[in-house]
Design a protein that fits this description.
Blueprint: H1 9-23, E1 28-31, H2 47-72, E2 79-82, H3 96-114
Parallel strand pairs: 1-2
Helix pairs in contact: 1-2, 2-3
């Protein structure tokens, strides 16, 4: 295991490069980072509450995809799997920050798949 700050694109790039040095070419990536975040009334959360889930759940998947998918494309094969939550399809009232971030991860993967 190699720890990295998932809010830092350069840190992710370093981990990916280190992984390739140690283990070879990347074929499959499974992104599982996520936080549920604050719970309660969706309109009473602060921007920081939404931002925490957005940065951890959604933007980390964007960052990891940026660091890995371009390495798989030239070989014409690879898999990028994001583990999200049922909240993307069945949101819970008190988990709005997580619902929003989960839906964004689902939508990102759906869009990238089309490419």
């Amino acid at each position: 295991m190699v720890p990295a700050d998932i809010t830092d694109q350069r840190a992710i790039e370093r981990v990916v490069a280190l992984g390739e040095e140690r283990f070879g070419k990347i074929d499959i990536v499974v992104h599982t980072a996520g936080v549920t975040g604050a719970k309660g009334d969706p309109l009473e959360f602060s921007d920081a509450d939404y931002e925490e889930a957005w940065q951890t759940d959604f933007f980390s998947s964007v960052r990891v995809a940026r660091a890995t998918i371009p390495r798989m494309r030239p070989r014409g094969w690879g898999r990028f799997v994001c583990i999200t939550s049922e909240n993307a399809a069945q949101p819970y009232y008190e988990e709005a920050v997580y619902n929003v971030a989960s839906w964004a991860v689902f939508s990102l993967c759906s869009s990238a798949r089309l490419e």
